């Protein structure tokens, strides 16, 4: 009997020695046998017990959940401490367990659950059920998050971006999951939308060029040009953030999931009635909405704008910026010049609503009227004179003086001089007014020679005797009789035969109104007289001498 008990004891002893004692530094199973003083006492077998702080059993932001009799896994740090107890840790066990689980999730590209529990430089710390991960600030949400308070301690899914067990590094993202779910949501919303649908949306964001409207999980762009038929300078004129608006889906890009929206498409197009409302040549009141280098846009009614080209703005201001003629928001009268319905363009005229100043000038200043004005400009071909109605007239060099050459006469004029002139011609189409200064006192030459024709005999007075002939005067107009015209006979063609003050009869051989000269000849007069005498008193063929005929003629005169 004793033998058997010895053998049995030996067998038991061997068995107990053969039983593996757990390795330090591994995870073991244990049973909670008591809870006291904020600690759980755990029997890990092998006649070993250890203590774990209760808080190690708590999930972030939750109360500890552990009770006597629970089976738990703990990390055995050392088999015995000074008090003869095993040194164990629930947290370290959880970490080991978590890393195994996370590495598998990372390999499978699966989501993991965790809770944000702390804030660190550049982001947040996340408890992934035992392992601590880093969540960069940029990975928290799709849009920058100002206040992460509401996200703290919430159990939510994360995506592991990278992990390194040796260094204990894990980086996670919440944004990747949101983007994925947004993409699913977008696809679902877009799937239900059709081009041409009218939908309600909420204005989320306003930019220079338009507004983003949330259609229930998906944003569409409402471009500024599609908000109203009229010109909108900035979307904030029409919309406010948070406002609900009715919009029409204009276009859906299936690849990029971009949605274009419009508001004006839901209103009546004012262009449908433009042709009937604004007939050609009709005059309307409008408001200047925009000024450019090439003209000004004038709104005839909301949604209908026309362009007044710079060339149609003023009769007189030709090379001036439109902003010098009109100002924004000014009310103006305009005339409809052209309508192009397909291009949605109206051409307007501003000057057409005012009278043509050249027409007006021609009416009130017929040719021959005397006018006064300031010398605006002096050029090589004449003077420009400012006239009423903001227009200019031109005095050509040849119209400055009767006596002087134009180049000489123009020297006596200066800018800003006030001068008088006579209107000689108005060309309305070419917008040209010709003036004459020399015609002011009338045309002395024309007045003097008014009754004189070629062949007339006139009496002139000798004013000077020269080598080549004699200078004479008729009615204040000077002329010159050349030597060869002083007499029929060569012997009498001597200027010294005459004296200053002599009155002599001469025949008019030429009237040149351009050079304002009379051609005069004594010789021509003598020849004409002889011819007449011969015709009247006989023919030289009948044998009568010229002396007899002239004698008879003179007797007849007596």
Automatic annotation (TrEMBL):
Keyword entries, A-Z: Repeat, Ribonucleoprotein, Ribosomal protein, RNA-binding
Domain S1 motif: 25-91, 109-175, 196-264, 281-351, 368-438, 455-523
One Gene Ontology MF term: mRNA binding
UniProt keyword Ribosomal protein present: yes
Protein name in the entry: 30S ribosomal protein S1
UniProt xrefs under SUPFAM superfamilies: Nucleic acid-binding proteins (SSF50249)
GO biological process, one term: translation
Listed PROSITE patterns: S1
CDD domains: S1_RPS1_repeat_ec1_hs1, S1_RPS1_repeat_ec2_hs2, S1_RPS1_repeat_ec3
Gene Ontology CC annotation, any one: cytosolic small ribosomal subunit
Pfam families, A to Z: S1 (PF00575)
Function: Binds mRNA; thus facilitating recognition of the initiation point. It is needed to translate mRNA with a short Shine-Dalgarno (SD) purine-rich sequence.
Family: Belongs to the bacterial ribosomal protein bS1 family.
């Amino acid at each position: 009997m004793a033998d058997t008990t010895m053998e049995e004891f030996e067998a038991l002893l061997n068995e107990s020695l053969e039983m593996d004692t757990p390795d330090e530094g591994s995870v073991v199973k244990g049973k909670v046998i008591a809870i006291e003083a904020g600690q759980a006492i755990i029997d890990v077998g092998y006649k070993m017990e250890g203590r774990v702080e209760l808080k190690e059993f708590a999930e972030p932001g939750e109360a500890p959940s552990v009770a006597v009799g629970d089976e738990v896994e703990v990390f055995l740090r050392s088999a015995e401490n000074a008090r003869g107890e095993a040194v164990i840790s629930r947290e370290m066990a959880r970490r080991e367990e978590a890393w195994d689980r996370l590495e598998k999730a990372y390999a499978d590209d699966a989501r993991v659950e965790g809770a944000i529990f702390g804030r660190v430089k550049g982001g947040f710390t996340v408890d992934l059920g035992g392992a601590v991960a880093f969540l960069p600030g940029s990975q928290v949400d799709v849009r920058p998050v100002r206040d992460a308070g509401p996200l703290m301690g919430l159990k939510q899914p994360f995506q592991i971006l990278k992990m390194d067990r040796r260094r204990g590094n894990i980086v996670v993202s919440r944004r990747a999951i949101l983007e994925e779910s947004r993409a699913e949501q977008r696809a679902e919303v877009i799937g239900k939308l059709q081009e041409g649908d009218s939908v309600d949306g909420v204005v989320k964001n306003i930019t220079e060029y338009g507004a983003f409207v949330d259609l229930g999980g998906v944003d569409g762009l409402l471009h500024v040009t599609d908000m109203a038929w009229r010109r909108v300078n900035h979307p904030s004129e029409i919309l406010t953030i948070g406002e609900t608006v009715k919009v029409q889906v204009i276009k859906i890009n299936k690849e990029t999931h971009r949605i274009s929206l419009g508001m004006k498409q839901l209103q009546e197009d004012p262009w449908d009635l433009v042709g009937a409302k604004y007939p050609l040549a009709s005059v309307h009141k409008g408001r200047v909405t925009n000024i450019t280098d090439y003209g000004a846009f004038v709104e005839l009614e909301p949604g209908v704008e026309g362009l007044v080209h710079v060339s149609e703005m003023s009769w007189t201001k030709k090379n001036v910026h439109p902003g010098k003629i009109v100002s924004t928001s000014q009310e103006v009268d305009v005339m409809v010049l052209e309508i192009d319905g397909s291009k949605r363009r109206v051409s307007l005229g501003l000057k057409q609503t005012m009278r043509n100043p050249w027409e007006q000038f021609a009416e009130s200043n017929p040719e021959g009227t005397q006018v006064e004005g300031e010398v605006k400009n002096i050029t090589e071909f004449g003077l420009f004179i400012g006239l009423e109605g903001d227009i200019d007239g031109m005095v050509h060099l040849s119209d400055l003086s009767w006596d002087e050459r134009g180049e000489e006469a123009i020297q006596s004029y200066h800018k800003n001089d006030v001068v008088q002139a006579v209107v000689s011609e108005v060309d309305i189409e070419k917008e040209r007014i010709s003036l004459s200064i020399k015609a002011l006192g009338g045309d002395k030459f024309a007045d003097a020679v008014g009754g004189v024709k070629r062949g007339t005999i006139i009496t002139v007075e000798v004013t000077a005797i020269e080598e080549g002939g004699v200078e004479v005067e008729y009615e204040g107009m000077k002329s010159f009789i050349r030597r060869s015209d002083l007499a029929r006979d060569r012997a009498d063609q001597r200027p010294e035969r005459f004296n200053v003050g002599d009155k002599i009869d001469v025949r008019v051989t030429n009237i040149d109104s351009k050079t304002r000269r009379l051609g005069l000849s004594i010789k021509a007069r003598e020849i004409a007289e002889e011819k007449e005498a011969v015709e009247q008193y006989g023919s030289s063929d009948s044998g009568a001498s010229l002396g007899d005929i002239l004698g008879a003629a003179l007797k007849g005169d007596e």
